[in-house]
Design brief:
The chain is built from one helix and nine strands, in the order αβββββββββ. It has about 160 residues and is of the alpha+beta class.
Length: about 160
């Protein structure tokens, strides 16, 4: 005698709740990754802009120290930019000035130079400065600030 086997006709599928939960988990992971990536990029921007400004300061110091044209060389600081200039005084609009704009998320703050003002001037023949001091580069989006220190003998450091 033969017996008939009955198979249940079952379909396996995901429920709508399971699909929603998986989509939510992936959305949270992607959101956190995007936020971390953006913050990491802003931190890198602060570091790279600080390195660029420190390099510009070293260039100005080197130009003055070379005795080229027996004139000074300096940098004028603004909140969102800095300008490299030749001579012992900053002249706005001079054709030889070279202005560098910071990204919109960056600021130059707390400029504290000896004698006050916003001009750092290196003098020949050794590239020394009487306007030594410190300044900060910071991000407007995250809490990251780096301080640049300029010493009287013309050395530049940052941290």
């Amino acid at each position: 005698m033969k017996t008939k086997r009955h198979f249940k006709n079952t379909q396996r599928a995901f429920t709508i709740i399971e699909i929603i939960v998986v989509v939510m988990v992936f959305s949270i992971i992607i959101g956190i990754t995007g936020l971390y990536s953006q913050t990491s990029q802003l931190r890198h921007d602060v570091s790279s802009q600080t390195q660029m400004l420190a390099s510009s300061l070293r260039l100005a110091q080197s130009n003055a120290g070379s005795g080229k044209n027996n004139e000074g060389s300096g940098i004028h600081f603004e909140t969102n930019a800095y300008t490299l200039f030749k001579g012992n005084n900053f002249v706005d609009g001079n054709a030889e000035n070279f202005k560098i704009e910071l990204p919109s998320t960056m600021r130059i703050n707390n400029v504290a130079l000896n004698g006050g003002g916003n001009d750092l001037i290196f003098l020949p023949p050794n590239g020394e400065t009487a306007t030594f001091g410190t300044l900060d580069i910071s991000s407007t989006k995250i809490e990251k600030t780096l301080t640049i220190t300029i010493y009287p003998i013309g050395n530049v450091s940052y941290k």
